[in-house]
Amino acid sequence: MESLVIPLLILVAVAVAVTLTARGWGRRRQSAEPAKAPPESAELAKMAAAKLSEEEHRRLYALIAQGQAMAAIKLYYEVSGQGLRASRDAVAALAAHPQPFRSPPQATSEPDADDDTPQRFPYRYRAIASKGDVTREVSSNMLNDEIYGRIRTLAKSGNTEAAATALTRHSDITMKQAREFIALLDD
């Protein structure tokens, strides 16, 4: 029995060595495979890029291109105010799904009736008013439903001069023509 102990110990040592070697190779394969981005990382990249100014966007992508992932994560961490893990995920998403810089949309305020420079639309709007046998039409690319609605509200509330002024501002008609048109809306 004593003669079998030594070969049995050798067999156990070989089994342990083979197991450890197999585990090491498996870990190497996992680390050698490129990390697959989760399906939502494209959306994460869009949201992350939206939080950057043009200069920060340029600096971040310069760091990514230079392979300085830690510096890129640090920059995003400082700029965004998010946590370290969220910054790491955002930079990984930006590297996997490069995003062009998009300036934030300007806040567009609704045009006021007092606005001096009316907006030109890509279409011509036709406003028609009639009373009895009299019909007037105003066609302009500076009118739309909203502006015409405000003009009609002014006319119906009795403020015909303001309505006529707004109509001349948003069309190419004279004040006299605008007053004739507004008179048909007055009822």
Order of helices and strands: HHHHHEEHHH
Mean pLDDT: 82
Low-confidence stretches: 111-115
The total beta strand count reads: 2
List the total number of helices: 8
Label the overall shape. Answer: rod-shaped
The major pleated sheet works out as:
2 strands, antiparallel
Record the strand order, biggest sheet: 1-2
Structural class: mainly alpha
In what range is the share of β-strand residues?
5-15%
Portion of residues within helices:
55-70%
Measured on Cα atoms, how large is the radius of gyration?
Answer: 36 Å
| Termini separation | 119 Å
Report on the structure:
The protein has 187 residues and is mainly alpha-helical. Among the domains are: 37-101, no CATH class; 125-185, no CATH class. 59% of the residues lie in helices and 7% in strands. The protein contains eight helices and two strands. α4 crosses α5 (84-96). It is rod-shaped and about 125 Å long. Residues 111-115 have low confidence and may be disordered.
Summarize the structure.
The radius of gyration is 36 Å and the shape is rod-shaped. It has 187 residues and is mainly alpha-helical. It is 59% helix and 7% strand.
Give the SSE layout:
Elements (H helix, E strand, L loop, with lengths): L1 H31 L8 H10 L3 H12 L3 H12 L3 H13 L28 E7 L2 E7 L4 H12 L3 H10 L5 H11 L2
Antiparallel strand pairs: 1-2
Helix pairs in contact: 2-5, 3-4, 4-5, 6-7, 7-8
